[in-house]
Amino acid sequence: MRVKICGITRVEDAAFAEHAGTDAIGVVMFSPTSRRSVPEPRAREIFGALGPFVTRVIVTHTKSEDDLKKILALRPDAIQISHPFVFESDPGVRVLRVIGRGDNVPTVCNAVIVDESMGAGKKFDRDFAREVVKTSAVPVILAGGLTPENVGDAIREVRPYAVDVASGVETTPGIKDHHKIAAFIAAAQEVP
Question: Do the beta carbons of residue 64 and residue 30 sit within 8 Å?
């Protein structure tokens, strides 16, 4: 099972998550209501500390084309967007689109993230998530309310491509608990 640790604000948390075996690191930008949102220099610093086999994801809730251009200029491996931006040409990164109940399952993207939580720890809707996994033409990533204690059951019930966690491995918003990160990754990866 693939794992993304999201809402990283500190280099030491990113480095620990990589050492613990995460597949991807999410850094939030241009989301002023999020306590996990970091400025461009911090995002560069976090991504610069990672090795070549960790996927770098910028997560944003912006609706601004200018913000999107600044994000793309950072050259992440992927962008996670909730706004339905339309790309006239290949943006040069993988596009992960966030959806919740009532949203159509997009096809013009590299993956879909089922998450109504937006980092708030709100539990996902299992029936909706299972339906998206069944119908999506692209990989489905499960997020929302996941913790080291419940991620195994969530994987067994939904069978997503990957899982994504932010608040479920924190001591406070943006500050990760290293023991919880290790426990989350271990619990996710032990599901057959």
Answer: yes
> Measuring CA to CA, which residue among 185, 128, 183 is closest to residue 162?
185
Instruction: CATH number of the domain at 77, please.
Output: 3.20.20.70
Show which residues are catalytic: 6, 115
Measured CA to CA, the distance from residue 42 to residue 114 in angstroms comes to 27
The boundaries of the domain holding residue 43 are 2-189
Residue 14 to residues 19, 83, 121, 145, 158, Cα–Cα distance (Å) = 9, 26, 20, 20, 27
Each residue of 57-113: pLDDT tens digit?
Answer: 999 999 999 999 999 999 999 999 999 999 989 999 999 999 988 889 998 999 999
What angle, 0 to 180 degrees and rounded to 10, lies between the N-to-C axes of helices 178-189 and 151-158?
30
Element (H or E) spanning 53, and its range?
none
With cut-offs at 50, 70 and 90, classify the pLDDT of residue 120.
Answer: low
Tokens of 113: 């993230």
Q: Is pTM, for the whole model, over 0.85?
A: yes
Residue where the block lists tokens 């200018």: 66
The total domain count for the chain is 1
